[in-house]
Write a structure and sequence with these properties.
By secondary structure, this protein is of the alpha+beta class. It folds into 2 domains: about 110 residues, Beta-grasp domain (Ubiquitin-like (UB roll)); about 150 residues, Globin-like. The strands form 2 sheets. A 5-stranded mixed beta sheet has the order 2-1-7-5-6, covered by helices on one side. Strand 5 and strand 6 form a beta hairpin.
């Protein structure tokens, strides 16, 4: 009896269900708290007095973090604080507070905040894990500092703006933590044109054990890779009797995903099973 020919399943024929990009979520949340262009113009009025205090606040914030035992432990600062690390952290914090005082609501700032969340989850240069409660409490300290300068009638707008920032950082944090949930560890890497978006191999743990699960976790964690490899697909789904437009994603034409060096299109596509120690490789067209 003749054997049945296996059907090829290129990855670009299959749909991925991914969270919204950080910038999309930030735009929606800014609208929710009422931070429109008119509100931003009000906050600009506080720029000069806030800037006069910004350097002192940066120093005070890190002095507090280093003296409070739980945060000092989370940052690895028990005992002597490494001066080079303190300098880098204060530089990062200074950049953030400057952009905040300038009421930055750009898409690039959303990615910056998302990355800050990944860093807090232990995916930064020092691999320090900072529990999310310390991040939210640190932002509350900043709001308290702002309140010493900002008129009461505008403090609510600043509070909403900082709350949105906290939510975007939380998205990055959650995407990072999700990488570590699952029984099987899979190594994900990229070649060619995809390498700048994933410059180092990424370890992703999976529960269901499929290529789809590993890819969806990777793309949630690295939106930079989504920019290069994927394109949006408009879809609709029912919510409480109403049809709502949703965005799903698929690979651009002629992308390939390899499992242990074999094209998954000739296995089971995105349903291909994975086991501990397997590797996945993004291989773009044109290499």
């Amino acid at each position: 009896m003749a054997t049945q020919k296996k059907v090829e399943k290129p990855v670009w024929t299959e749909i991925l269900d991914l969270p919204q990009l950080p910038e999309t979520q930030m735009r929606e949340q800014l609208a929710f708290v009422g931070l429109n262009e008119a509100a931003k113009r009000e906050l600009y009025l506080d720029g000069e007095p806030l800037l006069r205090h910004a350097a002192d606040w940066v120093a005070a914030a890190y002095d507090h973090l280093s003296r409070y035992a739980p945060t000092a432990k989370a940052l690895g600062w028990e005992g002597r604080i490494p001066e080079d690390e303190l300098y880098l952290r204060r530089t990062f914090f200074s950049g953030w507070i400057g952009r905040t005082i300038g009421v930055d609501t750009s898409d690039e700032f959303a990615r910056y905040l998302f990355h800050a969340g990944r860093v807090h989850a232990g995916y930064g240069p020092g691999r320090h894990f900072v529990p999310p409660e310390w991040v939210s409490l640190s932002l509350s300290l900043i709001l308290r500092m702002f309140s010493s300068v900002v008129p009461a009638e505008r403090l609510g707008l600043w509070s909403g703006y900082l709350a949105v920032q906290q939510e975007i950082m939380r998205l990055g944090y959650d995407a990072a933590v999700a990488l570590e949930r699952g029984r099987a560890a899979v190594r994900v890497n990229a070649l060619g044109l995809a390498l700048p978006a994933l410059p180092e191999p990424l370890t992703v743990r999976v529960d269901g054990g499929t290529v789809r699960e590993a890819l969806e976790k990777t793309f949630a964690f690295r939106p930079e890779l989504r920019d290069i490899a994927l394109e949006p697909v408009l879809d609709a789904e029912e919510h409480a009797g109403w049809m709502e437009e949703v965005v799903r994603w698929r690979f651009k034409n002629n992308w390939t995903v390899l499992k242990n060096g074999r094209d998954v299109a000739y296995l089971e596509g995105l349903a291909t099973r994975l086991k501990n120690g397997d590797s996945l490789t993004f291989l773009p067209p044109g290499r």
